[in-house]
Recover the amino acids of this structure.
């Protein structure tokens, strides 16, 4: 497992990891819970292991907007409200600078490899569970 985590961090910042529930499955995530970690996200990486993702935790709940500037991995994103309920799932194209909006207030955003939510049967209304508290 350590080589897998090291490969995940190879091109990005070293941030805390956690295992969360995403609908019916578990997922290992890097936790971006401060402004710098959220700003860098998954930029400048060439790949991400299949059962991994990045969880963005915000101090408040509001409409969120993401873009893919400097992000080379095709991603899917789920936005979730303060209770962890998924309010939107969308796909994002590598290096695309247009924004993808949560459309609804969200406290969490979860990025995974494109198509991961569909492959695992995760849909709008499903719950993120075992969410770590913000560290900062």
């Amino acid at each position: 497992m350590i080589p897998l985590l090291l490969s995940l961090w190879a091109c990005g910042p070293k941030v805390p990891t956690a295992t969360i529930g995403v609908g019916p499955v578990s997922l290992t995530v890097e936790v971006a819970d401060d402004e710098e970690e959220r700003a860098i996200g998954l930029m400048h990486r060439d790949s991400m292991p299949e059962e991994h993702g990045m969880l963005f935790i915000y101090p408040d709940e509001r409409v969120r907007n993401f873009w893919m500037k400097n992000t080379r991995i095709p991603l899917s994103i789920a936005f979730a409200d303060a209770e962890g309920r998924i309010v939107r799932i969308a796909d994002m194209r590598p290096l695309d600078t247009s924004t993808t909006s949560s459309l609804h207030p969200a406290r969490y955003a979860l990025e995974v490899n494109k198509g991961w939510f569909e492959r695992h049967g995760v849909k709008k209304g499903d719950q993120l569970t075992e969410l770590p508290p913000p560290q900062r």
